[in-house]
Amino acid sequence: MKYSSQMVAKNYFIFALILLAGEIVFGLILGTQYIAGDFLFPEIPFNVARMVHTNLLIVLILFGFMGAAYYLVPEESERELWSPWLAKVTFWVFAAAGVVTILGYLFVPYATLAEITYNNLLPTMGREFLEQPTIIKIGIVIVALSFVLNIGMTVLTGRRTVITVVLLTGLVGLALFFLFAFYVPDNLVLDKFFWWYVVHLWVEGVWELIMGAILSFVLIKVTGVDREHIDKWLYLIIAMTLVSGIVGTGHHFFYIGTPSYWLWIGSIASAVEPLPFLLMILYAFAMSKQRRIDHDNKIALTWAKGTVVMAFLGAGVLGFLHTLAPVNFFTHGTQLTAAHGHSSFFGAYIMIMFTIISYAMPIMRGRPNGNGLKAQKVELTSFWMMVIGMLGLTFALMVAGTMQVFLQRMGGADSLSFMATQAEIVPVYMVRLAFGVLTLLGLLTYFYSFFVKHEAVTK
After folding, report:
1. How far apart are the C-alpha atoms of 48 and 86, rounded to whole Å?
2. In this structure, how many other beta carbons lie within 10 angstroms of the beta carbon of residue 289?
3. Residue 455 pLDDT > 80
4. How many whole angstroms separate alpha carbon 439 and alpha carbon 345?
5. Engineered SS bond to 371: which of 204, 264, 282, 375, CB 3.0-4.6 Å?
6. pTM given for the model
7. Rounded alpha-carbon distances, angstroms, from residue 448 to 297, 330, 445, 454
8. How many CB atoms lie within 10 A of CB 285?
9. 260 pLDDT more than 70
10. How far apart are CA 153 and CA 8, in angstroms?
11. Which of 209, 202, 205 is nearest to 178 (CA)?
12. Dihedral sign from CA coordinates of 431, 437, 443, 446
């Protein structure tokens, strides 16, 4: 490595992967409970399993982003990290807070958890994806501020590149938009309106900036393409992301009591939102074609290209298909939403995490040219297992969601009830569960690739 402080990223990457394994396990628990509702009841009821599943997803992505930033920023800024000590302390504080929160969800009734954490002093609990106790949310803010301070000081006192500026913009936005988690108005319409400022503007706004910066860094390293060329692509992608993503918040405002003009604004913006992901596909494959070096770490480039394709399909295409207002009238809250959510989170954010880990981890383990051919073949196998698993899972959820629409929402007087509809979908849920198991096996295969005996790549 060029800078010793880049090593702080290693713990973040390892912990993110451990959390991913836990997140998939709880996903499988949920998948089983869709088939057998009393599975693991009362030890892990469905609502608790879902809360753990979604919270693990958010936290693991944040750990992945933090590790990526701590690795790439020193190299981009051409200086050591401003405070490696602060980065290490931040890791342990965030990891401890995350573990305590999950254990609280699993072993303490949620109402009791709210009481013992003094949620009544500043009520913020009870909102989907933001179920964390208020004291934990305050801890997250402190962690985020220390993280942004560390990265910001490194960027501002070193060389500034388009990649670091875009990354820092995304990280500052991440911290700022999370503050809306503390605003819980009594009016339910206002509550849902501002709740989306965190959920949407993270996922379809600032997180995309972070993703673009990480993707650009890896492409520069494994293709050798001129930085100026990559910068132009990144400017275009980020501009489209901000324009479509911010206004695209409107597709969440269709049926929550907001004015009817959001039907038009949200629908039009949703039609534009796939474009940044399409640009990312053109970008990644163009950089691969114009490469100036033949880097030995082939699998990192495979993850990069896989990221943009899967992100386009999940976040772009599937998002667009059910966010036009006349369609969303029937599809919102169905398994079609889950299909979009699973495929977009995996394609955009889990796979970009694998991309930077597959590039950086071998270097941090003393393998500057990447893992050996055997390890890369094992990792390639894990790549296809996880991709096929998530594609199969997504397709099953699309079928389940379509069945929900026709059986429950478009049958008129003959429409089935929610529970009767769920009973009809059980065979599809079994298929979804099988592909979920394949995804977990793919992750375990990825873990195994770390233990394959290293053999230097020779040409």
Report:
1. 33
2. 9
3. no
4. 14
5. 375
6. 0.95
7. 17, 43, 5, 12
8. 14
9. yes
10. 16
11. 202
12. negative
